[in-house]
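input
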Amino acid sequence: MASHLNVQGIFAAATVSDLSTALMWYECFLGRPADDHPLAQMAQWRNLSATGGLQLWGDKTRAGSGVMTIVVPDLAVEIQRLSAQGIVPDSEARGPFGAVASFFDADNNRIVLAEPAID
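output
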């Protein structure tokens, strides 16, 4: 028996007040529609990376204040793509750690795009 959690994959998640409305924003943000809706108030994007995805949950009582970080290879490219769709970062920072840009959905969930530093 393993002495640690044997992780096969992981999903970031956000809770939103109106799943239908939020789906449009997240589909624009991610650049593609959700892969499936396994539950009535849940949509998910599988395989955004080799082992990660995103789940979006509709729940008015728990909506907002979530935080997720999505690592991307070229932050400038993503900011340009999103800005062309009217989604602009709330803040940006660059340093020895790399670069990050924070975005907020309509429920105040923070989505951070992060570009690692080049070694």
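quick obs: The two ends are 37 Å apart (CA to CA).
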